[in-house]
Automatic annotation (TrEMBL):
Lineage: Bacteria, Pseudomonadati, Pseudomonadota, Alphaproteobacteria, Rhodobacterales
Annotated GO MF terms: ATP binding; ATP hydrolysis activity
Organism: Maritimibacter alkaliphilus HTCC2654
InterPro entries linked to this entry: AAA+_ATPase, ABC_transporter-like_ATP-bd, ABC_transporter-like_CS, ABC_transporter_ATP-bind, P-loop_NTPase
Ranges in coiled-coil conformation: none
Gene3D superfamilies (UniProt xref): P-loop containing nucleotide triphosphate hydrolases
Sequence ranges assigned to domain ABC transporter in this UniProt record: 6-236
Superkingdom, natural source: Bacteria
SMART domains tied to this protein: AAA (SM00382)
Sequence similarity: Belongs to the ABC transporter superfamily.
Protein name, UniProt field: ABC-type nitrate/sulfonate/bicarbonate transport system ATPase component
Keyword entries, A-Z: ATP-binding, Nucleotide-binding, Transport
């Protein structure tokens, strides 16, 4: 078996002097080139898990290793958030070149790589535009291009499409899968949307709240590439969806609030929290 890219062993994380146990006993490996989604109700620790992986937080128990070492905010892990967080005073091109300048690339190399990435996310013609001139979906594309600019072997994505309209979300999911297939970047993707998780991932980690812990891990055995034929028509998609839904119901019977979970994971819609 290939050595994991990210390895968490018995990780615990708490806040407020231990009064909030955000995560407890998390053991999880992410392989190179793998696409893994983290799902679970609000407060189950998904974002905390990402922040532990990129070294922004330190675990209180257990170990987090990236390529065999404790991650630091400078480890080559790129992060994409719900909002693109672009620098408003820089052009689209400038936003990408900026991160490459921090890495010490020459002016020519910066320009070449940035324009190539803008082409990859369909925004070559908007290189000179400023963030406020772009739609939310276009801004997210720039955020994605900027994250990929540093050629990370891991991309950590925290609900990157949650604030976008349904059509843009669909397009960006397909584009993300194409980029992932082409570049071989491992992706850890947080979402509240079960359909999105099944569509994108090879593996889904379902977390339960209070304290955040792994409820189960499911392998998504659907044919790839998934942007070519809609996997939602596949009976295995429905089976996975039902499986996740049943597990979430079982969780709710174990004590979490049924209403919150039903709202978060209404199986009749793709809406999130
Ligand atoms: N900096 C912090 N200080 C105090 N408590 C925190 C902090 N960060 C997270 N928590 C708590 O840790 C728990 C997990 O939070 P986290 O944001 O990781 O959950 P989440 O699953 O990402 O939630 P959501 O789906 O709502 O974004 C929550 O109870 C939250 O209130």
């Amino acid at each position: 078996m290939t050595a994991p890219l990210i390895s968490l062993r018995n990780v615990g994380k708490w806040f407020k002097d231990g009064r909030v146990v955000a995560l407890e006993d998390i053991t999880l490996d992410i392989a190179p080139r793998e696409f893994v989604s983290l799902v679970g109700p609000s407060g189950c620790g998904k974002t905390t898990l990402l922040r532990l992986m990129n070294g922004l937080l330190q675990p209180d128990t257990g170990t987090v290793l990236v390529r065999g070492e404790a991650p630091t905010p400078n480890s080559d892990l790129a992060m994409v958030f719900q909002s693109a967080r672009l620098l408003p005073w820089r052009s689209v091109l400038g936003n990408i070149e900026f991160v490459l300048a921090l890495r010490g690339l020459s002016r020519t190399a910066r320009r070449e790589r940035s324009l190539g990435l803008l082409g990859a996310v369909g925004l070559r013609d908007f290189a000179e535009a400023f963030p406020h001139e772009l739609s939310g979906g276009m801004q997210q594309r720039v955020g994605l291009a900027r994250a990929l600019a540093v050629e990370p072997d891991v991309l950590l994505m925290d609900e990157p499409f949650a604030a976008l309209d349904a059509m843009t979300r669909e397009t960006l999911r397909a584009e993300l899968l194409k980029l992932w297939a082409r570049r071989g970047t491992a992706i850890v993707f947080v979402t509240h949307d079960i359909d999105e998780a099944i569509f994108l991932s090879q593996r889904i980690v379902l977390l339960r709240p209070r304290p955040g812990a792994i409820e189960t891990t499911l392998t998504v055995d659907l044919p790839e590439p998934r942007w070519e034929t809609d996997p939602r028509a596949d009976p295995r998609f429905a089976a996975l969806r039902a499986d996740l839904w049943n597990r979430i119901h079982a969780m709710s019977r174990d004590g979490a609030e049924l209403e919150e979970l039903a709202y978060a994971f209404d199986p009749g819609t793709t809406k999130g929290i």
